[in-house]
Amino acid sequence: MRRTPFVLLTLFAGAYPAFALDLPVRKSGLWELKMEFAAGGVPGQVMKQCVDPEADRLMNLNFGGSNEQYCSKNDVSRNGATITVDSVCKFGEATTTSHAVVTGSFDSAYTVQVTSKREGGPPLPGVKPGVETRMSISAKWLGPCEKGQRPGDVVMANGVTMNVLDLQKLRPPPK
User: Fold this and answer.
1) Which sequence spans correspond to the domains of the chain?
2) Could you read off the pLDDT of 131-151 as tens digits, one per residue?
């Protein structure tokens, strides 16, 4: 299943469109993220991310896109340790409307509950067009990055590692 990392990152990006740019930077080190998708046929996934402030901001850009460029709505409200975001973003022919609630600490552990609806664009595996989907993310800080890891490394459950800093170099410059 070599497509699994791509499919999961695509789903993650589609359900996590705008609010990533508005989140605080996470504590440097190794974070474990457990994602659960309520959509049938999409398995839960665990990934580890080695971050420092620069890599964390870049991960947010890669997963979140650019608010100004893609999102016509990005309403963020904060109440204590809870951040609520409502967004409408268009990526190609697909428009995603999302509601996200983020709770916890970006120094130790946080959760994200996302409800989204994607309309238009090519179909995604396990996601029916126009149907509301739910995703939850539980993240916890594990400690320093492991030996040999560098900021920007994302390690998927199947052992595939990619580095967002390296991927950024491959992206075409913005228009």
Assistant:
1) 4-168
2) 888 989 999 999 999 999 999
Q: 82-136, pLDDT tens digit by residue?
A: 999 898 988 888 888 999 999 999 999 999 999 988 888 888 776 677 788 898 9
Strand-pair category, 161-163 with 71-79: unpaired
Amino acid at site 88: V
Residue 70: which of 163, 174, 166, 172 has the closest Cα?
Answer: 174
pTM greater than 0.70: yes
Nearest to 38 by CA among 144, 126, 151, 157: 126
Spatial neighbors of 86 by CB under 8 A, at least 6 apart, are: 73, 74, 75, 98, 99, 100
